[in-house]
Amino acid sequence: MDCKEDSKSNSGGPPAEDKSRDDVRAQRKPNGWQKQPGRAKPKKESVLQLSTTPNRLPEQISCCSAEASPPLHPLFHSIAIKISNNVIRGANSRCVKLLGAIKDFVQSYELPPGTSWKHSLSADLKASMDLLKTQCPFAISMSNSLDFVLSSLHNMNEGEDRSVNDLKGDLLKMIDQYVEEKVEKAVEAIVIYGLEKIAPGDKIMVYSITEAVIALLLKAAENGIHFELIVIQTPESMEEISELLNKLKNPILNKVIEVNSVNFSNALYRMVHCTKLLLGGHGLFTNGGVLAQAGSGQLALLAATYNKPALFLCETFKFCDRSPLDLFSLDEFISGAMWNQNQPENSKNDEEPFEPKIMFDVTPSTLVTVVITDIDMLPSNSVPVVLRVQEGRSLVKNAS
Amino acid sequence: MTTASKESQYMALLQQLETSLKRGRYVRSHELATRTLRLAEKYVQSDSWKNAEEVMQWLENTADRLTKAAVSESAPSNVLKRLIKTVQEDFMTRKNKGKLHTISRLDSDAKVDYSEELPDLRSDILGAILDLSSELENGAESIAEDAEKHINANEVIMTIGRSRTVEAFLKRAAKVNKLEVIIVKCGPFYQGKDLAKILSKSKIKTTVVNDTAAFSLMSRVDKIVIGTHTVLANGGLKAIAGCHQILLTSKYFNVPVLVLAASYKLSPEYPFSAEMKITNRFVSPEELIDYKNGQMIDNVQVYAPVFDYVPPELVSLFIFNMGSHAPSYIHRLLHDTYTQG
Which residue stretches belong to region Disordered (chain A) (predicted)? Predict the structure, then answer.
C-alpha cells in the first residue's frame, strides 16, 4: 500500500536537520500543512462538537503553539500527512512507521552544546510529538510506543564511560526489539492462540480487519481448515478487504475456504448463518472497552442478540491505561471526525450538511466474548492486570 | 364513454402496473398505492360487474396478481384488500338501510350473501375510493401534524435512510422547536444524503454519517424517527437494510423509536423469519463493489438485500395517519382495516 513512499521518506537520511530552525520556518507556506486542522473545522455546531473540550481543538493548539514552539520536524511531518490522509492505515503500521521516524530522528540528532544527550533528546522528542499530535490522529499504539521510547530513554544509564554513540546504539536496539517483540511476534502469538478457536466448518464473519486478523485467517486456510468467510464491507475498509482477499487468492486456498461478502447494512442477512464474529482491535481500555473500526460495536451487539460469540484480536502493545465511557472523550474520535472530512469546498456553505467520518468506536466489555492477545485469551476486563504486570507494579505496592 | 372502452382502460392500467412491478420500475410505495387505487376506480366505474361479490372477487384476484408480480411490494395488495373491507361495509349499510337496528356484525358467523344487486353500491364504493385517495395524498401531512406532540425543543433526532414522511415530520417539528437531525446512510443505496441536503436547505442543523457510526452517536440521540416500507401484522417492520442493527443499538441505549407509516403500509402479512428470504428484494451490488477489483473478487459471492426485518420489540410507537399506536395494537388495527381470513 504505502510501503514505497514511506521507505523513501524514512531512509532519506537526515534531510533538513542541518538547516537552522529559522530557515525551516521561513520555508513554511502560508497555506501549507500547518493550516490543515483549521481547514477541517466544521462550520456547524453540532452535538458532535459540543462534546469536544475547547482547549483540545486542534486549531487552537496550533494557534497557541505556532509561534512559541519550533515547527514539526520534516521526518514527522511526512508521517503526519500520511496518517491524516489515511495513507498509513492500521494501528500496527502507524506504530511501526512512527518508531521508524523516531529512530531516524535519534540517529540524526545533534546535541546542543553543554547539555546532556539523554535529557535534551527526551525533551526535543516530546516537543516534536506534542506538535505531531496536533497534526494528525495519534493512535493508541503510537502513544504507547512513544511512552516506551521515553521511558527507556529515562531509564538509560548515562555513566562517564559511555559515549553518546553507545547510548544512541542502545536506544535504537531497544526500539528494534520493541518492534520485533511487541508488534511482529505478537501477531504470530495471536495466530497461535486464535487457531484454537477456528474449527473446520466454521462460518466466520470478519470486520475491523487488522494485520492479526489477516494473519490468522491466512494461517487457518494454509493449515487446511475448511471454513466460510463472511467479509463485512464498508466503503472505508475496502483497502483492508482487498489486502485480505488478495492474500487468500491462491488456487489451493480457494479450495479450502469459501468467501462471501455483504455490505455493513446487510450484516443481519448473514449474521444468522455465521458461527462467530472475528474483529481486530485498535486499542483496549482498562474498563474492558475495545477500540475498533467504527461499526464494531453494532456488529458485536448484533452477534450478542443472535447468540454468536464476538472474538477480538488485540496485541498487548495496544493496551491503554485509560477508561473512556464513551467515544466522545477520545482523541481518536475527535481527530477522526475532524481530519477525515473530505469536503473543504462544501463546508464553506452553511446549507451543506455536516458530514464527519467517524473511524472508530468503543465496544463495551459486556459485548466482548473474549480478547485474543499475544499473552493469552483474556476477558476484556483483565486489561488492568496485564498493564500492572507489564509495568512491574506489585499488588502490595499499589495498596500502600 | 362506452363501457367497452372503460373496460379496456382498466385492463391497460392493470397491465402497466403489473409490468412496472415485474421490472422493478417504481420509486416509492406511495406511487404504487396511488396507481393501484386509480386502477380500482376505473374498474368500479366500468360495467364489468353486477354485484358486490364480483367486485370483491376481482379485488382479491388482482391483489394476488400484483403480489405475484413483485413479492416484496405489499402496497398494491394492501390497498386492494382494504377496499374489499370497504365494499363489504358499504354493502351491509346499503342493504340494511331503512331497516331498524338490524346491522349484522361483519365478523359474525352468519354467512352474508353478497350477490344481491344494489343500484347505489357503485356510487358508495366510488365515494370510498375518493376518500382513500385523499387519505393517500395527505398521509404525510397528517402524520406530520403529530410532530409537535413528540418532538421537544433542542432534541437530537436520528433518522435512517430517506423517507418523505420523515422529511415532512421533521420540517414540521423544526417550525415549532429547534432540533438537530442526524441522518444515517445505509447501503446499498445510501440515500440519506439526499434527505440531508433537503433538511439543511430548510435551515435544520443536519449531520450525515454512515451506518457504522450509529453505535458511537447513539448515546447523544434523544429519539429515533424512521419511515418504513411495510408494517407487518405482528407489529414488526420491513424496513431498509441496516435498520435492525441500528434499532438494536437504540434499544441498548434505551432511545425511543418512532415509526411513521401511512395506512397503506400496514400489511396483513406475518414475517417468515429474521432473514425475510421470501419477501426480500435483492439488487446488484455494483454500488458496493468497484469493478476495478474484479480480479480480486472473482471468487467472492456478494449479497445485496434491500430490506431488514425489525421485530416489534424494537419499536416504541407507530404514528399512522389515523393515530398513534403501540406495536401490540397492530392486530386490532388490522382487524379494522382488512377482512378476516
Answer: 1-48
B contact residues 82-141, partner A, Cβ 8 Å cutoff: none
Flag if B297 and A357 touch (Cβ within 8 Å): no
pLDDT attached to residue A55: 33
Same domain, A175 and A198: no
CATH number at residue A278: 3.40.50.10470
* A343 vs A282: which has the higher pLDDT: A282
ipTM score of complex = 0.87
Domains detected in chain B: 3-138 (1.20.120.420), 145-337 (3.40.50.10470)
Q: Which of A45, A265, A294 sits opposite B216 (nearest CB)?
A: A294
How many domains does chain A contain in total?
2
What is residue B259's three-state secondary structure?
strand
As a whole-number percent, the residues of chain A with pLDDT over 90 amount to: 30
Whether B187 contacts chain A with CB within 8 A:
yes
Taking an 8 Å cut-off on Cβ atoms, the answer to whether B289 and A51 are in contact is: no
Reading chain B (341 residues) residue by residue, the pLDDT tens digits are: 555 677 788 888 888 888 888 887 777 888 899 999 999 998 988 888 888 888 889 999 999 899 888 888 889 999 999 999 988 888 888 887 766 555 555 555 566 778 777 778 888 889 999 999 999 888 888 999 989 899 998 899 999 989 989 999 999 999 998 999 999 998 777 888 889 989 988 889 898 888 898 998 898 899 999 999 999 988 999 898 999 999 999 999 999 999 999 989 998 888 765 555 556 777 777 777 766 666 566 678 888 888 888 999 999 999 998 889 999 999 888 888 888 75
Is B296 close to A242, i.e. CB distance below 8 A?
yes
Q: Distance from A129 to chain B by nearest Cα, in Å?
A: 28
CA distance A356 to chain B (A): 6
Give yes or no for B284 touching A (CB within 8 A): no
Closest CA to B186 of B234, B245, B129, B135: B245
Compute the nearest-CA separation of A319 from chain B (Å): 20
CB contact under 8 A, A358 and B209: yes
What is the span of the domain harbouring residue A146? 3-184
Task: Say which CATH number the domain at A173 has.
Answer: 1.20.120
> Which of B200, B207, B274 is closest, CB to CB, to A48?
B207
Which of A151, A184, A217 corresponds to the end of one domain?
Answer: A184
Q: How many beta-carbon pairs under 8 angstroms link A with B?
A: 172
3-state secondary structure chain A: CCHHHHHHHHCCCCCCCCCCHHHHHHHCCCCCHHHHHHHCCCCCCCHHHHCCCHHHCHHHHHHHHHHHCCCCCHHHHHHHHHHHCCCCCCHHHHHHHHHHHHHHHHHCCCCCCCCCHHHHHHHHHHHHHHHHHHHCCCCHHHHHHHHHHHHHHHCCCCCCCCCHHHHHHHHHHHHHHHHHHHHHHHHHHHHHHHHCCCCCCEEEEEECCCHHHHHHHHHHHHCCCCEEEEEEECHHHHHHHHHHHHHHCCHHHHHHEEEEEEEHHHHHHHHCCCCEEEEECCEEECCCCEEEECCHHHHHHHHHHCCCCEEEECCHHHEECCCCCCHHHCHHHHHHHHHCCCCCCHHHCCCCCECCCCCEEEECHHHCCEEECCCCEECHHHHHHHHHHHHCCCHHHHHC
pLDDT of residue A22: 43
Would an 8 Å CB–CB cutoff place B272 in contact with chain A? no
Confidence of residue A24 (pLDDT cuts 50, 70, 90): very low
Considering only the beta carbons, identify the residue of B207, B241, B309 that sits closest to A265. B241
**Are A229 and A301 part of one and the same domain?**
yes
- Summarize pLDDT for B46-55 with one digit per residue, the tens: 888 888 888 8
Smallest CA–CA separation between B208 and chain A, in Å? 5
